[in-house]
Amino acid sequence: MPKAVVGDGIDKEARRIVLVVDDEPIVRNFMKRVLAGEGYNVLSATNGREALALVEVGAIDLVVTDIMMPELDGLKLGARISQLPLAPPVVYVSASDHPPAGMGKWYLQKPFSAADLIRMAGEILSRSKSS
Question: In this structure, which long-range contacts are made by residues 120-123, counting pairs with CB atoms below 8 Å and at least 24 apart in sequence?
Answer without folding.
Answer: 120/91, 121/18, 121/35, 121/38, 121/40, 121/62, 121/64, 121/91, 122/38
